[in-house]
Amino acid sequence: MTGPPRIVVTVTATANRMDAETIRTRIWRYGDAIRRHGGDPFMLDATSSGAEREAAFAAMEGLVLSGGVDMDPVRYGRPNRGSVDVQPDRDELEAQAWSAAERRDVPALGICRGFQVINVLMGGSLLQHVDGHRAGDGTGPPVRHPLRVAPGTRLARMLFPDDAEAGAVEVNSFHHQAVRAADLAPGLVASGWAPSPAGDLVEAIESPGGARLVLGLQCHPERTDSTSPAFERLWSAFVDACRRPVRRSGQRH
Question: What domains, with CATH codes, occur in the chain?
Answer without folding.
Answer: 6-252 (3.40.50.880)
